[in-house]
Amino acid sequence: MSRGPDLFGSYSPGTTLLHRAPLWAKGLSIVAVTLAVVLSPSWPVPTALTVVLLVAGSAAGIGAREWWRGLAPALPVLVLLAVYHVLTAGAAQAADVVLTIVVFLVVTRVLMHTTPLPELLDGVVWLCSPVRLVRADPERIGLAISLMLRSIPFIVGAVGELRDAVRARGLRPNPVRLVTPAVIATVAYAERTGQALAARGFD
Known about the structure:
This protein is mostly helical. The chain has helices at residues 17-20, 23-39, 44-59, 64-71, 75-88, 91-114, 117-127, 138-168, 175-199. The chain is globular, with a radius of gyration of 20 Å. Pfam families: CbiQ.
């Protein structure tokens, strides 16, 4: 089975300012964006941040199709959240909630597009280095995050392929009936991953 859609984006080599920026600068920028969104009283701040991030990402080479691939899977959830908050708290609150989520989706794609995954994982390992004080291994934390990032697209892709296979047989996909084959595919993927790790000396 294929790995499925690239939900988080993937690194694309380049020489733009964002590509050349060190990881610590990107990390501080993400912290600043997070604080601005969390502390903002209403929707104009996440709106402005979304526009700035879209412009910055586009300047780094993210095209309209890639933006769509990143945002399209979240649209159903965003619509449901918008409707719920419009009915319960008003349009302003709905816009604030939805745009806050969009900000983090966009900043994640910009980060993944401009930063090689090994460099990101090295940064995570460095941030987790204090766990050595409790005899934990930050390298394993980085490995776990790497496996998660690789596994989620595979699982989504597996479910999509199963749904397409059911439709190809002229049947209507039933989410309940897809659970068992999806679990089998996921377990098989996990076993292959475990065997590969064992072959490389990970216990």
